[in-house]
Write a structure and sequence with these properties.
With 720 residues, the protein is α+β, with helices and mostly antiparallel strands. Among the domains are: 376-509; 543-569 and 579-720, no CATH class. 36% of the residues lie in helices and 19% in strands. The chain has 19 helices and 24 strands. A hairpin with a 4-residue loop joins strand 20 (638-643) and strand 21 (648-653). It is flat and about 105 Å long.
């Protein structure tokens, strides 16, 4: 990945993450009409108030009556202690724990806080109308309600006579109830910023709490809200309802609200505080700073006393300084011991992140940037396909020299490394030395077999041509080393007297690289070498490679990539070594639910059987094509035709008229034995049930045709 590309991706990710944070934290500050509520929509950094119901009243064992009642304050306090314990550890809080170094017995921290309180306002009259579902005027709503009441009461809108005054009063009450509506709440966000205040901690593990600067900011914000006339307040009644008639006008609506408000209401203020303490640990001090909502309530109150979208920033003051900590779950690997394993601190209900100026802060929507692994290219010559196709020795000499130089650097590193690192590093060094030997053995195989060397050069020419339009002109280093290291296993087919070559066949190699790293091109490069080598050593037809995938979708995705390379390889085979055997073709082997096993019988949801399919109109089966883009002309016009004479399903380009070298039914694969098979891994079970599968590994018994074992069985690393 280039530096510019990486920066562009980071800009996109940051934009998406910022947008998500604004949404989940409601950071745009928009006023919300009912029925929106913050407890349902704001999910970042929420510190709720603690609802601690009072204990049930006790019974006097002597008199049978209720015992002495505690005051509300005593009830709240006692219940809170019972539920939450004697300290703040179980209260809603977010906390930072970090390591500092200091030369004094006190550690001073500058703390900044940002959080939000949500306060309720009365909705406007239109918002209230919308809330109850009345989009028309209050008069129209009243008429609808009256007509509904009259239709329920009796004909002509008259209330049926009652048997007494009690029934009449009950009917009148029911009528009034039907004309009542709950008052919704419109919510406004109050952003609270508490400037730097000092947290002065002793190194004796004493807990220090600061709440005054927070309370001052909270009280000012809440008091300012309730000084406004649209600040919602509880009603004198248990329910907050008004008549639908009160929605006739804004003035009538406001008058109805003010008339029902509880004059004795006094606003509450959330009890928020910051607590810190210090512990001695090793050569430094472990500091813990928590932001806590210590609000205890016997029941849910009219106000929302939760703190939302809480964020805290802490800056150690000189001479104290923040120290990095080691993330203990990270592997103790000498290669990146001092990089990915170091953290600035740990968070509780948040994630700690470093801040400019030597501070540490909280985030409730953390981001992790996975750095791209860029392959070194400054220590080897360009691994260009054209150069390797012309004369590979200068390029391979440069790679081998760089590998040996890296091995020498490793030996120098081992001579000065710590004792606890040396054993693991030595094991890695021996593994790399084995890679060097296998690379050298691959070069020896090419020097000892000119056919293998020619196949290597031709494969590079194929990849140069296939990728010319994409702007790629060379291998990545791991791809080239992997391919050359596998060549002895191919040479073992012809040189069974070379023990080093034969030994390579006894091992299966796993090529691991993150998605998009180039592993597909690596094994396709080896596949094309094997194809050319088979023809050069006299294998005129039959399977050379079988690519197995765990899922059908993966096999379809890879099919077009393999086909493009295969078509180019066939063009080179026909030009360089005509008459060397059957053309390179592709077989798709996945099972009857996707492609027919036997052409004569119906299969799946689309194949009607050969007798019906051969008489079907042209283009009827096109949507079941395996590839859409023609590898010859590049047009997206590939369709399916049924060839009655050859008993085949053919992929034909409607633009250039060429037939693509694909066999998509099991019968066709058995009959023609294409050079490359692509399919799902479950098809391997066919060796236990179908005799035709032996042709894949041993070839068919054609007169005058050499039977040969398959050169390579390859599977995509997505299996792992």
């Amino acid at each position: 990945m280039s530096e510019v590309t990486g920066q562009g991706e980071r800009v996109i990710v940051d934009h998406l993450a910022d947008s998500l944070a604004r949404w989940l934290g409601d950071r745009d500050g928009t006023r919300h009409a009912p029925p929106w509520e913050p407890r349902q929509y704001v999910v970042l950094g929420v510190l709720p108030a603690t609802i601690s119901p009072p204990a049930p009243a006790t019974t006097d064992p002597d008199g049978g009556g209720a015992g002495p009642q505690e005051s509300p304050e005593q009830t709240i306090e006692a219940s809170a202690v019972e539920v939450l314990g004697a300290d703040d550890t179980a209260l809603p809080a977010m906390a930072l724990t970090f390591l500092v170094a200091t030369t004094e017995n006190r550690i001073k921290l500058a703390v900044e806080l940002d959080f939000a309180l949500y306060v309720e306002e009365y909705p406007t009259v239109q918002e209230q109308r919308d809330y109850v579902g009345h989009l028309a005027t209050a008069t129209e709503a009243s008429q609808v309600s009256d007509e509904s009441s009259d239709s329920e009461s009796g004909p002509a809108g008259r209330v049926p006579p009652s048997s007494g005054s009690a029934d009449a009063e009950s009917a009148a009450a029911a009528h009034r109830h039907r004309r009542q509506t709950n008052v919704g709440g419109a919510w406004r966000r109050l952003n609270i910023h508490v400037d730097d205040f000092l947290l002065d901690l002793h190194t004796t593990e004493e807990h220090i709490t600061v709440d005054a600067p927070i309370a001052e900011c909270v009280r000012a914000a809440v008091t300012g809200h309730f000084s406004g006339e649209m600040a919602a307040r509880p009603f004198r009644t248990r329910t907050r309802t008004i008549s639908l008639d009160d929605l006739a006008s804004e003035d009538q609506y406001r008058h109805a609200l003010q008339e029902r408000e509880d004059p004795a209401f006094e606003p509450l203020y959330p009890n928020l505080k910051v607590t810190g303490f210090v512990q001695r640990i090793g050569g430094g001090y472990l500091v813990s700073v928590s932001f806590t909502n210590a609000t205890f309530l016997p029941r849910r109150q009219f106000q929302d006393l939760s703190a939302y979208d809480c964020r805290m920033r802490v800056y150690p003051q000189s001479p104290a300084a923040l120290l990095s900590q080691r993330f203990e779950l990270a592997p103790r690997d000498y290669r990146y011991m001092d990089d990915v394993s170091l953290i600035c601190g740990q968070g509780n209900a948040c994630v700690a992140e470093p801040l400019p100026g030597g501070g540490v802060g909280t985030t409730t929507l953390p981001r992790f940037y996975q750095h791209a692994v860029l392959h070194r290219a400054d220590h080897v010559p360009p691994l260009a396909w054209d150069d390797l196709a012309a004369d590979p020795d200068p390029v391979l000499d440069g790679v081998e020299s760089a590998m040996q130089m890296y091995l020498d650097e490793w030996d120098a590193f081992l001579r000065g490394v710590r004792d606890d690192v040396r054993p693991e590093s030595m094991r890695e060094r021996e593994a790399f030395a084995s890679e060097v030997e296998r690379f050298q053995l691959g070069r020896e195989a090419m020097r000892g077999d000119p056919r293998l060397a020619q196949a290597f050069r031709m494969a590079n020419a194929v990849f140069g041509e296939t990728n010319a339009a994409k702007g790629y002109d060379q291998w990545r280093l791991f791809q080239l080393v992997y391919i050359v290291s596998q060549l002895p296993a191919l040479a073992a087919r012809e040189h069974r007297d070379v023990a080093e070559f034969v030994r390579e066949v006894e091992f299966a190699d796993v090529l691991w690289i993150p998605t998009g790293g180039g592993k597909t091109e690596a094994y396709l490069g080896l596949l094309v070498i094997a194809l050319f080598y088979d023809r050069l050593r006299g294998k005129t037809r039959g399977v050379t490679a079988w690519l197995k995938f765990p899922l059908r979708m993966l096999s379809v995705q890879q099919l077009a990539r393999v086909l493009r390379v295969l078509v180019t390889a066939e063009r080179h085979r026909a030009a360089v070594m005509p008459g060397s055997g059957a053309p390179f073709e592709l077989g798709y082997l996945v099972g009857s639910s996707n492609t027919p096993n036997q052409l004569r019988y119906p299969a799946g949801e689309w194949w009607p059987g050969f007798a019906v399919a051969k008489d079907s109109p042209a283009g009827l089966l096109d949507e079941r094509r395996l590839v859409a883009e023609c590898p010859y002309c590049g047009e997206d016009r590939v369709g399916l035709d049924v060839d009655a004479d050859a008993v085949r399903i053919k992929h034909v380009c409607r633009a250039c008229g060429k037939t693509l070298p694909i066999y998509m039914s099991d019968e066709e694969v058995y009959r023609y034995l294409p050079s490359v098979l692509v399919g799902t891994v479950d098809k391997l079970t066919g060796f236990a049930f179908f005799g035709e599968f032996t042709q894949f590994t041993h070839g068919a018994r054609w007169p005058g045709v050499r039977r040969s074992h398959v050169s390579m069985l390859s599977s995509d690393s997505e299996l792992l």
